[in-house]
Design a protein that fits this description.
single chain, 190 residues, two-stranded antiparallel sheet, 5 helices, 4 strands, transferase, CblAdoTrfase-like_sf
Length: 190
């Protein structure tokens, strides 16, 4: 359980922060940027939920929880020492990726195949889901870059890759099953 009695600690005033294993790093470190972007994405999902209801809202709630799991995973760099940790570190696992795949397949089953690229937009929920998609892609790019320098849980990378796909299909679903998607017209304004 997390207990926060005091919100400010002043320990970051010099531009450093602590990772999940206690190591102090610069606040601009790539690992911090990666999990900070997953936190930003979680906030975007929170805004999208203002326009969602029913199963979409429930799915977005699950995703928000997963994104906290992802942040906990990314803030703990020493995967090879997981078994020695006092408390087992929280890691994203393949079943979370597989759940996203099942949900994507279920949503996509009701959509017509795309014959054009679509522009982000449509109704409010779809527009917010497209914002979530692009922030998820940025979080994925940062996490993949981090993985070239340090050890990163590959399930976390896969999760982010599927998540952006989930947001894309969910946005189409929110746009009246794709019927209200805004299609790209190449060269329309030449």
């Amino acid at each position: 359980m997390v207990v926060l009695n005091k919100i400010y600690t002043k320990t970051g005033d010099a531009g450093e922060t602590a990772l999940g294993n206690g190591t102090r790093v610069a606040k601009h470190a790539l690992r911090v940027t990666a999990y900070g972007t997953s936190d930003e994405l979680n906030s975007c999902v929170g805004v999208a939920r203002l326009h969602a209801d029913g199963e979409v809202d429930a799915a977005l709630s699950r995703i928000q929880n997963d994104l906290f799991d992802l942040g906990a995973d990314l803030c703990r760099p020493d995967m090879e020492q997981d078994s020695d940790a006092e408390y087992p570190p929280l890691r994203v696992i393949d079943s979370q990726v597989e759940r996203l795949e099942r949900e994507i397949d279920a949503m996509n089953a009701g959509l017509e195949p795309l014959r054009s690229f679509i522009l982000p937009g449509g109704n409010a929920l779809a527009a917010h889901l497209h914002i979530c998609r692009t922030v998820a892609r940025r979080a994925e790019r940062l996490t993949v870059e981090l993985a070239t320098l340090e050890t990163v849980n590959q399930a976390a990378v896969k999760y982010l890759n599927r998540l952006s796909d989930w947001f894309f299909v969910a946005a189409r679903t929110a746009n009246n099953g794709g019927k209200d998607d805004v299609l790209w017209v190449p060269g329309a304004n030449r």
